[in-house]
Amino acid sequence: MRSLVPKTYSAPVTYYCNLVHHCFSLKSLHFIKSVHAQFIQVGFCANTFLGNRYVELYSKFGTVDDAFKAFRDIPIKNQISWNLCLNLCIKSDEIGSARKLFDEMPVRDVVSWNTMILGYASDGFLDNALELFVEMQNVGVMPSEFTYSIMTSLVWSRCHGKQIHARMIRSSVSASNVVLGNSLIDMYGRIGLVNYAFGVFKAMEKLDVISWNSLIFSCYRGGCGKLALDHFCLMTSIGVSPDDFTVSTVVAVCSHVVDLEKGKQTFALCVKMGFLLNTIVSSAIIDMFSKCNRLEDSVRLFEEIKGWDSAVCNSMISSYAWHGFAYDSMHLFAVMFRESIMPTEFTLSSVLSTASALLPVEQGTQVHSLVIKMGMETDSFVASSLMHMYAVFGSVNSALQIFAMMAVRDIISWNTVIAGLRCNGRLVETLMTFKKLLAEGPQPDETTLLEVLLACNYGGFIDEGSNIFSLMEKEYGIRPRDEHYVCIMDMMSRAGKLEEAFEIIRTMSYEPSSLVWGAILGSCDVHGDLRFTEMVAYTLMELKPESSLPYLVLARTYEADKRWESLIKVRRAMKERDVKGDIDCSWIGFRNSIFVFKSNEMLHIRDKDIYQMLSLLDTEMEDEFHCYQQHNYMDEGEE
Description:
PPR_At4g14850-like_plant, mainly alpha, PPR_rpt, repeat, 35 helices
């Protein structure tokens, strides 16, 4: 190769700076090393600026070892040298080496601290990142706007979120900065403080489409779907053009609130603006039609999409599963393989959910084998779906084995194993697992506490359940919702503690729903308290006139109390209002068929075979019972 060094060796440093800059554009490792060799030959290896540029070059286009060697060759290292090497350690996933280097640095500026905090955050060491943020200020280094944008992305605690915002205000860091303001809006939405997100949004001097997206997504994540749709309308009305993320969020809101009309309007906007070319948007629309009970529209849109990918296939598979079309879901899963579309973690999770709900255990284990073959058993999302499937099949021990092998356990995996134990009647183990979660796991969420309360209810652990319920808001920062109140109402009522149950109702921060009154009604009847029964039944009739529960409970109560006149009035009212009892059903998967049995159904498509099987089972049970009696009789004779 012809020498790149001029004949005179007194070439200025600017010549080599331009040459190194040329290396960045060429991206050729061979050329970079050739220039570096001649650069050392002419004695410029002592130049700190050029040394830093080579550390940067090798970090981007070379090997890690070359970059570290270039760093060590710099005789006089400045702050940029140290920061480049620190960033190199972080990018190489060597967090331990990064921390060691960070501690050895003679001077650490705000860039050094930001790099180390970001490194901890990227590797999932959130507590270390928070500790370093506090330490940074203790040694007198003022956080920058970038520091605060990192911290806002880490926070999941309301208390920590407010503290970081307060530090920003005290440090005179302006939240009107569009990037920082957007980060704060996103943070407050993530921790459930939508009002605070609005406060930041209104205080910002300049807004961009990301600001609107963050606010709309915060409303959606905070359960304020109508508010999200209203602000989407406001956004478009003042001339802010939505992007792909905006419409995909709005479509997700329509799915959540089951607003088909708004969903169709958003779909029309997507067609008009060409957003359907984005498969994330089209998959969200497939999901929206499915959730709004328009599966045929989901199928039509899916078939019209020319280029399928895993996103649209995932949405269609989950849509089929949502409507109980297990075999269509599994068929599409097979088609994905034929079309060389590799399934993602979400695909496998959806298929496992389908298998656990509707298919025989053999197909579930086949999917498990595929998960192992694809090396996805360590993914927490897939592992949680596997645990759920085995728990539904009754193989709790298999679910526990998967849980024990998980390297990282998020709250979803903890919730799955707690729910699996509870559903299979292992109630003491459910409470023990919850205590283990509190000791070594993440913060429990609404689902965790609901599952534990259900376990306390079914197991009759009144004191434990009452204690957990009383600590929900105070200790765990979770405001009880209807399902939590229903559970505690049922628990108290079953135990005959009706006064305590009514006291909880009186302290509710909102008006009790029909679900809450329904939970207490059945127990009023059981404990024979006519005054309570009538009061709760009439309240439930006003809240939910179509429900048959209050009429049936009142009728049963009056019949037991021999109040025939009142019984006739209730039955007449039920007939006049055309109130009908709910029909329960159960189903079972056998080979390639799903058999559904309704409680009021006397005839079935396979009724002859079913009754023959029942007759055989009845005969076998009688034989077993006679053998059991004879065995006991012989034992008594021997005694």
